[in-house]
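Weekly structure sync, notes
Attendees: PL (lead), two postdocs, one rotation student
Agenda item 3: pending single-chain targets
PL asked that the sequence for the first pending target be pasted directly into the notes so everyone works from the same version. It is reproduced below exactly as submitted, 514 residues in total.
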Amino acid sequence: MTFEELASPSLPRFAGRVVPALKNFYESIRMPALPAALMIGVPLALAVGLFALVREHALINIDLVYYPLFVLVYAIWVFPILGFMAFSYPGIKPYRSAAPKQRFICVVPAFNEQSVIGNPVRSLLAQDYPRDLYEVWVVFDGTDDTAEIARSLGANVLITPTDGFGKHRALKYAFERLLRDDDDRYVCVFDADNTVSPNYLSAANNAIQEKGFKCLQSFHDVLNGSANWITKALWCSCATSSRVYLSGRYRMPGNTLICGTGWSCEASLLRKHWGTIRTQTEDIELNGILLLEEGITVGYVPEAHIYDEKPLNLWVSIRQRMRWMCGHTRVAYYYFWPCVKEGIKRRNLALLELAAYYLVPFALLASFLSFPLLAGLFVHVFKVTGPLAWNPIQIGFEIVAFFFIFVYQIVGFFPYNIDAPNGFVHTYRILLYSLYTTIFASLVWAPAVVWAFFRLTKQDWLYHTPHVTGVETNDLDDQRAERFKGLVSPFPMPSGSAITHSVNDVEFEAEAVS
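Predicted structure, written out during the meeting:
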């Protein structure tokens, strides 16, 4: 019997709701047999090993392993994030309104994105900015109808010969042909599934006129946040990161991270430096290049939003993060020591902090390696001595860990408008989404990081994330009215009224995991 038969109208209304929800959940966790077996088998094997140590009444001193892992996790990952949170308050005020002056070229790299290419093209062509001051280009390196659809909607199209071999290579081809050495424009880069807030270019212009930013990042938001438990988790973590983490970085040490999409940079800088990009994470690599070679930090413009589609499936999410961690680790290989040496030489805190950030994949790996150690301490087969064995210090770090794991995203996401009917429902959803975030992170990041360390020699794109969330053409006006009506507030909410998913959303994602 199929899910559809079970959900027939003849069944009670409760079953008619529960069965589709179960189907949605099943599709969200569906993955190939081998990774599923590893995700279940490895924790079970560790549990069996700990049980065997308990039976043997073992008590093993783990100081030599525990202390280095502890320092790496807290120094590189936990304390910096909580520190940036402290610097994120109060919120960054919108920049002063300025007359439209800056010229832009908006570039959308796309590989087989016919289902979603209308999102960035329509929203960019509908910007609240003089049309003669910007161009929209789709850089296409795929095989479907993306280019034809983009042209029909009014975008310029550049066909590249890179044949889906990676975003940074497609952009390199485009920059060599669309930019000049003395180009006075700013290049704005968006992913092919993004919807762009109508004030993006005007907000960027205001920031450039007031602060003189050479490179800037916008608020990274979520397009399909209410689709399932995974997108709710990612909505919570992504909005928290944009609202708290990026704001804090902008204030101290004054260098926001480039987040892959929704960023802008002087065309002459990209023309000069983009050819040196070597990894799958061109965004954070560009952070290092600009700071090392030009002394340029990245500004933050939170009133400009881009809405990014998030994966609906765990396996898709794992593969996507594997690519990120692989690129991130390769960036660390190329830029960690140059950032450290130049940071000390120039007495530049931003360079030293960026060097530490490049070690995050190692801190993540250390955090997951510490799980069996913590479990062993809990069942008293492992022991530590020294300062971390002192009860007050243990309690203090347990409070910090609890706040970091469970409370951080609640604090960051709570002011966000999620269209709840009342305060009680709002609080309930925030708590639930935060729990989803913790569960998602526990399931996804560990296999992604471990897998990435086995793929470091790969220099190709590794994996293309499928996109399926489209915005209908005739709904653009509704989208502008509903989705962006909150832009006067620093925390607009992505309304779902104008968003349409393909009827084969789940099947489309499932194809990627089969």
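Discussion points:
- The first helix runs from residue 3 to 6.
- Confidence is low (pLDDT under 50) at residues 473-514.
Action: rotation student to compare against the earlier draft before next sync.
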